[in-house]
Write a structure and sequence with these properties.
By secondary structure, the chain is of the alpha/beta class. The protein has 2 domains: 187 residues, Vaccinia Virus protein VP39 (Rossmann fold), CATH 3.40.50; 119 residues, no CATH class. It is 47% helix and 12% strand. The chain has 18 helices and 7 strands. The protein has a 7-stranded mixed β-sheet with strand order 3-2-1-4-5-7-6, with helices on both faces. α4 links the parallel β1 and β2. α5 packs across α10 and α6 packs antiparallel against α12. The chain is globular. About 3% of the residues have low confidence. Bound molecules: S-adenosylmethionine (SAM). S-adenosylmethionine binds next to β2 and α13. The site of S-adenosylmethionine has 22 residues, from β2 and α13.
Length: 373
Amino acid sequence: MKTKIEDIIKGFKTPESRWARFGPYYAMFPLDFAFEVVEKYSRQGDFIIDPFAGRGSSIYAGSVLGRHSLGIEINPVGWLYGSVKLKPADENKVIDRVLEVYSRRNYYNRKIDKMPLFYRMCYCDEVLKFLLSARHHLNWQTSNVDATLMSILLVYLHGKLGEGLSNQMRMSKAMGMKYSVEWWKKEKLISPPEINPAEFIIKKISWRYKKGKPEGCDSSIIFGDSTVELEKIVPKAQKSGIRFSLLFTSPPYCSVTDYYADQWLRLWLLGGLEIPKSRQHKHKGRFVSKDDYKGLLDAVFCNCANLMAKNSTIYVRTDRRDFTFNSTLEILKKYFPKHKTKVVERLFSKRTQTELHGNKSSETGEIDIIMIR
Ligand SMILES: C[S@@+](CC[C@H](N)C(=O)[O-])C[C@H]1O[C@@H](n2cnc3c(N)ncnc32)[C@H](O)[C@@H]1O
């Protein structure tokens, strides 16, 4: 088993390793950590749950290591990465779909003229027309082929020059529209790179599928809000007698990351607004209300407690800042009162941006809450 895990986390030799890192996402689990936790705290055939699945590394590790794994994720970007890597569609079908989408790009000749300057500086005309065609035609919520192609487009939507479809931009998170335009002007990157999008994407698809498709135990990630989805899962699991042995998750950190603002450009490709606005839904943006935050954790861990086996393990990675950590610990202890708790601090090994600017705060970093019976 050790060699299998090492092959996956170190190289690109197997289908499992090629798909494991699929999907740049903010605040994601390091891959080796996801595999280590699954291997150490569960056995083959066990059931694992992650109610804040992100790009699905916990669920993927579970599936590849032979655990039935169930995730829930509210952000469509994370959900697409996670669910596609568990079960990518056939390569030929995905390539056919690229060609179909590409063949319809010229319907968007006039539409691109009306788009904000940001898009014209970010993408050359051919890419922008192709993206509009994909945005219009791909039924990513209902078709596995379309979900696979869409998730591959999301991966390459922005990144370093030459590595993605865009003008120079970070891969992990999209910068704001105004900021990007000013920055490109300042850096003299006025013209986006000329790319043939179909050729570019087909090359990326061929690389990803070169060793085949990953094999795993039957596992899935639900696209939805855990506070709602768990209410449906609990009675079903109880009826069928299924008990989960590992709860392995990392909730959003209170008032830190905004998964919608960070991913605004990818969300646009999925049908979102051309000019992003801040979100109204209380679980979708950055948590500013401490009550809402505690309410989310309470609802989710209460339902999870109803799913877990008596001798289950609870492994929660969170932010070590006081409010997030204390609320998480308090709520976990409330719902798992008989478990023994161990807390392991994981200070960032690299210096953070704020430290580099003179703030010596030792507050940042992550903390793992491990509960065992
Ligand atoms: C810290 S991240 C998890 C990252 C994940 N461990 C990974 O490796 O990618 C927290 C995730 O919780 C999701 N989330 C927040 N509220 C949620 C809710 N009510 N239901 C489901 N997912 C939610 C966010 O969209 C985000 O992807």
